[in-house]
Design brief:
The structure is a homodimer of 197-residue chains. Chain A has 197 residues and is an alpha/beta fold. Chain A is built from 7 helices and 6 strands; from the N terminus they run βαβαββββααααα. The complex binds manganese (II) ion (4 copies). Chains A, B: Its cofactor is Mn(2+).
Chain lengths: 197, 197
């Protein structure tokens, strides 16, 4: 089996970065060969989460075709949000929680659910595949759900997102409300400014 | 919760008819209110299968909007293969094994896998939801996989389709090779002609 790249959308938010890391980890645990990459550098919120949970940012790519024949999209499905040459490679799988605007050349695996974050869908997939989530990855997935749902306050928040946050906070051993507020603050210009003040 | 219609593509084949019946049954068992319908009358092969397993064909619709606000597509995802007014209703879920050409207005549930038939994906979903498959529905799902994979001979046939056929044949209590050949013959003009001869 040849290596596949897993990545979220351009101008990545925390869910885009983390869902790639989480899905790549899950796929590798179940016998596939994948690498999580990103279509841009992490924003300040994501950098805060990566630092907090001792993780390094995925390598940034600008094209897929020079490296692989097949890619896996997370947290997006539209070509215009994807890697520049997405039309030249096979899309072999997608995990996403957005509306769809997708054309593929071949059949593929898609897991889409109307949940608050791609990372919530991925928690389900870890459970279904009975793969344990390492504590630092759980902390990152928690961060992604907090980011997309604004600490479970956004109208896109579902009952499952609430359960997911509690489950992941337990694995990561953090108080999600305290941590979540700090993380969201790290992502605002306000926070940057007050740090400078 | 309001009723949703579940249907396969226009000019329905056996998988399009049966996958609608199977997914509707599964959804209703898990607390949703759905009705399996069809975008055309069953072909001769499908009629053979319905007769053999004592089932009646789903009612045919020509439009969705007069009846429901929300629909569920099986065995297709492209608007041009779907109900005439698909653009005027919400697509709330899709189960399919084809390449994609899909635009939606809202997030939705999608389960797509590159298996030989939509009915193979549905067998997985019954198992995941721990819902038992009635013997006659199992016989129909078996018929759909045999139809799409030409008795497990088509290049689209996967290892899981083979397992699915054996599992479903056991539940339906039929010899799938003998039954499958009869069913495929019922769908050919040759068979129609020799019956007339
Ligand atoms: Mn995102
Ligand atoms: Mn997201
Ligand atoms: Mn079909
Ligand atoms: Mn089919």
């Amino acid at each position: 089996m040849t290596k596949k790249l897993v990545f979220g959308h351009a101008n990545p938010d925390t869910d885009a970065i983390v869902a790639a890391m989480a899905y790549s980890y899950l796929l590798n645990q179940t016998g596939q060969e994948t690498e999580a990459v990103a279509l841009g550098t992490p924003n300040e919120e994501t950098q805060f989460a990566l630092r907090h949970f001792d993780a390094t940012a995925p390598r940034v790519i600008t094209a897929a075709k020079p490296e692989v024949n097949s890619v896996i999209l997370v947290d997006h499905n539209e070509a215009q949000q994807s890697v520049s040459d997405v039309a030249e490679v096979e899309i072999s799988a997608i995990v996403d929680h957005h509306k769809f605007n997708l054309t593929t050349a071949t059949p593929l695996n898609i897991r889409a659910e109307a949940l608050g974050a791609t990372s919530s869908i991925l928690l389900k997939m870890f459970n279904e595949n009975k793969v344990e989530i390492p504590a630092n990855l759980a902390g990152l997935m928690l961060s992604a759900i907090i980011s997309d749902t604004l600490l479970l306050k956004s109208p896109t928040t579902t009952e499952f997102d609430k359960i997911a946050v509690q489950t992941l906070a337990e694995i990561a051993d953090v108080d999600y409300e305290t941590y979540g507020l700090e993380m969201l603050k790290a992502g605002t210009n306000l926070a940057t400014k007050s740090e400078l003040d």
